[in-house]
Design goal:
Strand order of the largest sheet: 1-2-3-4-5
Number of strands: 8
Number of helices: 6
Radius of gyration: 15 Å
Number of domains: 1
CATH topology: Aminopeptidase
CATH architecture: 3-Layer(aba) Sandwich
Distance between the termini: 21 Å
Order of helices and strands: EEHHHEEEHEHEEH
CATH superfamily: Gcn5-related N-acetyltransferase (GNAT)
Largest sheet: 5 strands, antiparallel
Structural class: alpha+beta
Helix content: 25-40%
Length: 183
């Protein structure tokens, strides 16, 4: 069984719970048009929207025992984004399920952080949170996230559209058995 507010470490990252001081760096990440290009309808976030989302993220840990981890680079102490688990209610056709996702500041792209952190989150998902299956969802043109999903051992499930804004997405999945067969 999982602790209510776990933390995890990788070689280069501290996956931790959220702090009040994380709001401004996270709002900066969410305001970057390049970061948000494939998220939702593609529009950059506002500080207010980020604050509301962060409150929701914190509540999810208490409600479900899993959620999004703040991803902090150990060497610098910098919040570089988040990696974690959420319920993708925005895509009803695949429910019930849990999604693994990530969002990193642009200067952290291409360094292997998403894959490194997501592997640790998958271990948490299957070995501590007791999940049987995890999906990951990304815009069909987000080739970087597709590569991460493939590196994690996820396989193609379907292509569909998000009802709220019509953006095309692909869904990939990994079962607990599939995860354990990778090691």
């Amino acid at each position: 069984m999982t602790t209510r507010h776990p933390e995890r470490h990788t070689e280069r990252l501290w996956l931790r719970q959220w702090r009040e001081a994380d709001l401004d760096p996270l709002a900066e990440i969410d305001a970057d048009p390049d970061v948000m290009r494939y998220i939702g309808d593609g529009s950059p976030g506002t500080r207010e929207r980020t604050a509301a989302a962060l409150a929701h993220v914190r509540a999810a840990w208490d409600e479900r025992g899993y959620g999004l981890f703040a991803a902090e680079e150990i060497a610098t102490g910098e919040l570089i984004g988040w990696v974690g688990l959420a319920v993708p209610a925005f895509l009803p056709e695949i429910m019930p399920t849990v999604e693994i996702g990530w969002r990193l500041r642009r200067n952290s792209w291409g360094r292997g952080y998403a894959t490194e952190a997501a592997r640790e989150v998958l271990a948490f998902a299957f070995d501590e949170a007791g999940l049987d299956r995890v999906v990951s969802i990304c815009h069909v043109d987000n080739h970087a996230s597709t590569r991460v999903m493939t590196k994690l051992g996820m396989t193609f499930d379907r292509t569909t559209r998000v009802p709220a804004h019509g953006q095309p997405v692909q869904v990939m999945s990994l079962s607990r058995e599939g995860y354990h067969s990778l090691s």
